[in-house]
Queue: 2 jobs
Job 1
Amino acid sequence: YGALPLVDCTGKLVVPGLVDLHVHAPQYAYRGLGMDMELLDWLNTTAFPEEAKYADVGYAKRAYPLFVEDLKRGATTRAAMFATLHGPATRVLMDLVEDSGLVAYVGKVNMDRNSPDFLREESAEASACATVAWLEAVAGQYRRVKPILTPRFIPSCSDELMERLGQLQRTYRLPVQSHLSENQGEVEWVKELCPAAACYGDAYAGVGLFGGGAPTIMAHCVLSGEEEIRMMKERGVWVAHCPQSNTNIASGIAPVRRYLQEGISMGLGSDVAGGHSTSIFRAMADAIQVSKLRWRLQDQSLAPLTVEEAFWLGTAGGGSFFGAVGSFLPGYELDAVVLDDRRLRSTRALTLKERLERVIYLSDDRDVAGKFVQGRRVL
């Protein structure tokens, strides 16, 4: 390492980079709005009208920089992002993320049913063809940004579209991201739409989009039953736990302790704009708090999360989707955040763990003094 630059971080905390395993980039503009609604009403009144604006590439060029700049200033080093169904606007997002130095998976969304006319692809064939065009346009264009197959969720994707996306996954060997068992109304709707499926996850598995040979992130998993949990474990599906979003749109509290006990891969997601903050430190604190509520009010057999577990979820847990990421263990990529916690003054002599715990609960972007991604300084 003798030829590498030496950076003096005396007195500061140096932690692995934080990983956001589920975030909607086009929803950034209205974070903090519509938080008194549940999921399906919120999508129709708030999310879909905003996402429709990205049909205009000019709007994407004005809106996406705000999101990427926020992410770059904070402690997040990697993310799995939803864009919209618009290929050109999705490329704008990919360009900006690439230039930022962050590492990300970015997905052009697919949706051909049960959404407004102004935000719906005209057919399964049209959606699949648009996805192929996007994939071919971005092939070989980026070092740090990769495409990810993104059916929005089962209600917005016809059976034919899901079949076509399964074929695309096998052709292009793409990872997959979507939503699973988030909200009660959504889960009941999927039962109506897919009566032959054993569970919500089975509707994805039937077309090859639920782990196995397709590395898969499923966001939320608040209401997953025994069959679904078994399938997630056997197929190696990653769960993106989004505690702030699940609180804001009244979905419930995911049984995170159960998933840890089962050895299911898992990380944290901000889920902007269901979540109102891009901070994964905030997601760690929220995860601990909601796990305490679940333990106290719903199921005392599932112990609350500890600080160490929440920190792991936001670093190595989510980082594992990207490979050897989220730790300073030998062989891991160097993603690191330098934190200056002097602003968080105390009369106590704090241990290292206590300093980290206070950062999780009290810090914000002002405290990020430096950031490295894949060994390269980006901030």
Note: The first strand starts at residue 13 and ends at 16.
Job 2
Amino acid sequence: MNIDVFIKLVKTFKENGFRLYMIGGTTRDYLLGLDVFDFDFVTDATPDDIRNFIPDADFTFAKYGAVKVKVDGVKVDVTTLRVEENYEDFRHPGAIKFVKTIEEDYVRRDFTVNAIYIDEDFNIIDPSNGLEDLKNKVIRFIGDPEKRIKEDPLRILRAKRFSNKLGFEIEENSKKAMENLGYLLDKLNPDKIKEEERKSKLN
């Protein structure tokens, strides 16, 4: 991973009174010593805050808290810490609220190994015990696996993709929930299914 991307962006956010954390597959692959191609960071700054000090960022999806930033030509996804509610279409939350703490943010995420935060000093913040699952090579949904899948059934395919890519085992309760709720994949946009299948082939 090009650590400079994170360090430079951390500096920009810190100078403006905000914090930035590494998260998701970026943290997971970084800790595993793998090459990182997708840069996912989270912050306590809202899109409106970011607009004040990175005005040339891409704010297309700002209402969801998602901003795309370029650092030395590298595209970076920066998302505001948030909570999500009312998943009405098995994919997108009906309501989003920006928050300030990791403790509120992490519960909306999919798997424990994707909910490990790294701060500006490279301290690890691990609210769902993802480090242990990373060490033991386990894919485990955060909290109730059935609830996580009902929020977004595409997570079934994501679990399989990460399991194949990383050589990790899917935890037993997670596996049962995937089997029980597999029918929910029929409710998704077929293009989303195809996109996930395309990503699986790239692994």
Note: The chain has nine helices and ten strands.
